[in-house]
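Lab notebook, page 48
Experiment: co-folding of the full assembly
Goal: obtain a model of how the components sit together before planning crosslinking
Operator: M.T.
Materials (sequences as entered):
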Amino acid sequence: MSETTFMGVERSLINWKPTIDYSKCDYCMECVEFCPHKVFEVRENEEIRLIVKNPDNCVVFCRACSKTCGVDALSFPDKNMTTQRIKEIRKEMETHD
Amino acid sequence: MIDHFAILPCNGLDKCAGLISRELALKLCESAENEILCPVFYRVSDKKYNKIASERPLLVIDGCLTRCASKLAAEKGLKITKKIIIAEEAKGHGIKLNDNLRITDQEQSLLETLFDELNKNDDNIVPPPSESAMSCEFLYETFQNGKFIFRIPKNGEVFFNENDCWAYVIGNRARIGVTDFVQQNLSDILYFTPPEIGAEIDQFGELGEIESSKSVFELVSPVSGKVISINEKLVGKPELLNENPYELGWVAEIELTKFEDDKELLIGFDKYFEIMKKKVEEING
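Observation: model returned without errors.
Model output:
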């Protein structure tokens, strides 16, 4: 299970997930082994053998998987922009309340 | 100056960064009384290297972020005194390493630069001095899950983010650290990379790294401001984080710049206590 909200904001509204650069990825699968939140999925018999299957399981502001990637193939959104967006969503929520 | 060190490099036969790691280790051994621990031989046999590894400070030179050499050091229970990651150093110096296993002019130039930097810095082991002016007294609530006991500060001055980091705020300063959840989850912490003194950090920005044999944890700053002090004891003794991540294992102190704004995305003890309990239960059942 993963969080369903982050700072009171529904997780699915926050764009925070790894992006795989397939021109760099060598399918070592270190990220899959590392991530306890099952963000990635291995597809052994397909041409693209690794996908981001569960983006909303990714812990907001965590970039730990990218720190295990030997070929630097994982990137994340800009933290400041994500923080601003979270604040905007919270404001919108207050307005609707 | 790197002298009388044991040096554990990457094996150097998978990526160019590894090859630089290996060459750098050789150069450091040719220039001073350092000794290489061959990662391949060490993996299958302890006898040859155990004595030297236990007697000397250890420099780990990882090639890439897979950190094979660091992981081997963890497996062998070695304490890392200093480490560098070639791929990160290349990025820092604006160099894109080539894709094959040959060193060209640009890799050679990086190698020479790193060699000079390692030998030039007198602060290889001791970080630059910083002043800590804060005195923090913690009051705790605890809860137990199996054999693990978690302590959480309940003072009103302590704020948390949902990334398991705390900030003890006094006036316009905050002392920052990680909670018991992080240190229990990482298990034995082997290396601490502090933030730079003087660095301007945004809320949720990176405030150093903590590495164990299991993982690398990026410390997500609960508040924004300027780093004015780091916990120097933690650089030499990262195990203090496991011992006590509050009084002993705090990470850095920050001069606050936008605390009133930051507060919007901070939580207090009551809320964090519930979030942490839930996380522990999800992991341990």
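Interpretation: The domain at 5-96 of chain A is CATH 3.30.70.20 (Alpha-Beta Plaits).
Next step: discuss with group before ordering constructs.
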